[in-house]
Design brief:
Blueprint (H helix, E strand, L loop, with lengths): L6 E4 L4 E6 L15 E4 L4 E2 L2 E2 L5 E3 L1 H6 L10 E4 L8 E3 L8 E2 L3 E6 L5 H9 L1 H9 L11 H6 L1 E4 L2 H26 L1 H16 L6 H5 L39 E4 L4 E5 L13 E7 L2 H6 L3 E2 L4 E3 L1 H5 L9 E4 L7 E4 L9 E6 L6 H11 L17 H6 L1 E4 L2 H43 L14 H14 L14
Parallel strand pairs: 3-9, 15-18
Antiparallel strand pairs: 1-11, 2-10, 3-6, 4-5, 7-8, 7-10, 12-20, 13-19, 14-16, 17-18, 17-19
Amino acid sequence: MKPPGWAETPLAAVATKIGSGATPRGGSESYTREGVPLIRSMNVHFDGVRLEGLAHLDDTQAAALANVEVAAGDVLLNITGASIGRVAVAPAILAGARVNQHVSIIRLAAGLEPQFVRAYLASPVAQAIIGGENYGVTRPALTKGLIEEMRIPVAPLAEQRRIVAKLDGLITSTARARAELDRVPALATRYKQSVLGRAFSGQLTAAWRAAQSAFEPISPRSEGDIRAKYRTAGASTGFTPPYGIPKSWRWLRLPELGDMDRGKSRHRPRDDPRLFGGLFPFVQTGEVRAADRYLTSYAKTYSPFGLEQSRLWPAGTVCITIAANIAETAILGIDACFPDSVVGFSADQARCLPEYVEYFIRTAKADLEQFAPATAQKNINLEVLGAIRLPVPPLGEQAEIVRKIDVAFAEIDRLSAETSAARKLLDRLDQAVLAKAFRGDLVPQDPADEPASVLLDLIRAERAGAPKGKRERRPREAA
């Protein structure tokens, strides 16, 4: 039921112009750095027309699209693709711009507030109509006819203005809150890096360490326990520690803390069907990257034939990628095989914890070369990993560092999850506010307001008395 004094009408009855443009011949390569702005669907958002990524046309291209010249106050509606239904009002700064074929101009008759119509088109009711009344084989699209036939509510002009003013205040507040919430993921990432930085310099456990009795520093594995090719990797060249560490810590290389080697996938071709379909998990670089620290998910398995040409690494192995996604890490939560684009590190548990090593590489991956001798290559390979030095505390302190990182990360992740939930609630709040506005519940009705039916009668009368011009043609492609 319509609120008192409201009316309903097809959009075409209150619009003086509805139409979309075209892409200039030559596409995006023909855009200019300066000239007449071209508004595309990427520029039209619910919070306004964004100037980032705005294309420009030269005078010839703009002239070919003269019949879709934007005026301040035009309602701009995305009519194709994934952004269908996004709607904004053109600001004065974009008066004289053009639109391409993915954006429709809706120019309203006097007596309708553009922001009122924009708000309705953004409301849940209208968005459901826009999402349902479309066609297109490869992507949804709205035709001019569908837009013209869309029925919109019309409030008395004075009430339209009260609704717009109220919405402006409410949505401005939620927009500010949304902007603050959108900063949280980047802040969470920075905070995690800060926690890791403090952990591997000894700051995170300084108080804990002071309360303990003396610890014996970790000693490296004997030379005989280290594979021959790693005995001198980075050991005979100079290493300048990038920062100071506590007295009980030591800078040690990965081979001095455990065994490491590249994964194996010797058979060619690598996609031979005989390799797959068995019981042995086969993980790849993308799955290492996607793992939430412990890797337990996989898309492929090796057959006994596949296992024969590979190697099964035990759960607890630290996986380090050296191709595609460089220095991404995860700890195997299952026994699994992996290719030679992944290095496996098996910790000597008398000297280090796999979780400690994984956290350290996660910390240092953006600048791993600073932890290696000056002669080490910049790219990551087995030799470079063998030369990298880790700041290694006694085993008990490693466990405390891992515990503190786990606690800090869990709290950061909890706050991030709450932020994400709050962000969704804000979106729902905006929709609820819009729904309330068009039920007539957002602002009080004033019986003294001129009914919307009178406004529509005036628009019809003005149209009936206006001279008929030539029918506009929709541009196909600008020259």
